[in-house]
């Protein structure tokens, strides 16, 4: 079983069941079949624009064919979705075990996202992953508005065996970020992970604070942060699209981590967001365990999504 099989199981089952019903007994792919495929794609929260792009391409491919079997149609869909995920044309783009440029030291990652998406947990799992690869990590607890967030991050830091910089509740988050990167430089750390408050994407004042944090860090490391990682909850569906749009405007998002994929039948959100925003997904969360944050490999993801093995008919 591939590492993504658990993560896409519910999406795969829902999608294949609808796809099977769409084509069973049909002698050709007609408008009714395409409408059913469109419904299956939209219901997996792939997004309307991405869905229409796929449907248009399918129409072109089957236009001259009298008959397309279920397997042939699945192969076509697999090809179209693989194309959408191939942002750079580099077939090995997502195969690095840790997809960061460690030539920059310390490598500063600012993690953003709204409350409840699994942001703090993602930071903890990522810290553990980095530590296991021999990297020296420092976490900055810059979400100073919620004691629970700092305490949770402390637990993750202790579990991963990495340093954490924290201040009193209500402290200036930018001050925490400044102290964190300063400490990382002094300790010759490899990676800095900066947690930020779970901000609502429609709160302009809070979003502006992300800019302040970034500017303060640059007083220590001129090109920091090197990565702005946006954490999205796959179960929120279309709301994840809105969050990606607003955070991209406010924080120059460079990569994504999509969580809770194992509990959702809406895994298509992964494809839609990559297609619409051209921001690479670097990690997906497929469970609660410390090892359930996985580096995203587009080939393996598509293979798992379209594998017909072990499907519940």
What does this structure look like?
- The protein is an alpha/beta fold and 313 residues long.
- The chain has eleven helices and eight strands.
- It has an eight-stranded mixed β-sheet with strand order 3-2-4-1-5-6-7-8, sandwiched between helices.
- Helix 2 runs antiparallel to helix 3 and helix 3 packs across helix 4.
- About 2% of the residues have low confidence.
Mean pLDDT: 82
Largest sheet: 8 strands, mixed
**Radius of gyration from the alpha-carbon trace, in angstroms:** 21 Å
Q: Give the helices and strands as they follow along the chain.
A: HHHHEHEHEHEHEHEHEEH
Q: How does the helix and strand content classify structurally?
A: alpha/beta
Strand order of the largest sheet: 3-2-4-1-5-6-7-8
Helix share bin: 40-55%
Q: How many helical elements?
A: 11
Please state roughly what percent of the residues sit in beta strands, choosing from under 5%, 5-15%, 15-25%, 25-35%, 35-45% or over 45%: 5-15%
């Amino acid at each position: 079983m591939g590492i993504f099989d658990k993560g896409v199981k519910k999406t795969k089952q829902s999608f294949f069941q609808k796809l099977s019903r769409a084509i069973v007994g049909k002698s050709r792919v007609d408008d009714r079949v395409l409408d059913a495929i469109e419904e299956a794609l939209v219901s997996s929260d792939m997004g309307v624009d991405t869905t229409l792009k796929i449907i248009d391409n399918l129409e072109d491919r089957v236009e001259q064919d009298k008959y397309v079997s279920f397997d042939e149609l699945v192969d076509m869909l697999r090809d179209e979705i693989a194309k959408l995920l191939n942002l750079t044309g580099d077939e090995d783009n997502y195969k690095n075990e840790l997809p960061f440029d460690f030539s920059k030291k310390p490598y500063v990652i600012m993690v953003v996202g709204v409350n409840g998406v699994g942001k703090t947990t993602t930071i903890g799992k990522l810290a553990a992953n980095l530590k296991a690869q021999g990297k020296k990590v420092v976490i900055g607890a810059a979400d100073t508005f919620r004691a629970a967030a700092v305490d949770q991050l402390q637990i993750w830091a202790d579990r991963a065996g990495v340093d954490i910089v924290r201040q009193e509740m209500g402290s200036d988050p930018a001050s925490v970020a400044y102290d964190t990167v300063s400490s990382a430089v002094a300790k010759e750390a490899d990676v800095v992970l900066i947690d930020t408050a779970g901000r609502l994407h429609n709160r302009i004042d809070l979003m502006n604070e992300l800019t302040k944090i970034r500017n303060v860090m640059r007083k220590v490391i001129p090109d920091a942060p090197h990565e702005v990682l946006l954490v999205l909850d796959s179960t929120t569906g279309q709301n994840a699209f809105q969050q990606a749009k607003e955070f991209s405007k406010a924080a120059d998002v460079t990569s994504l981590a999509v969580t809770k994929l194992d509990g959702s039948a809406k895994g298509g959100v992964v494809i839609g967001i990559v297609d619409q925003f051209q921001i690479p997904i670097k990690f997906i969360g497929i469970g609660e365990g410390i090892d359930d944050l996985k580096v995203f490999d587009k080939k393996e993801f598509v293979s798992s999504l379209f594998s017909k093995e072990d499907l519940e008919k």
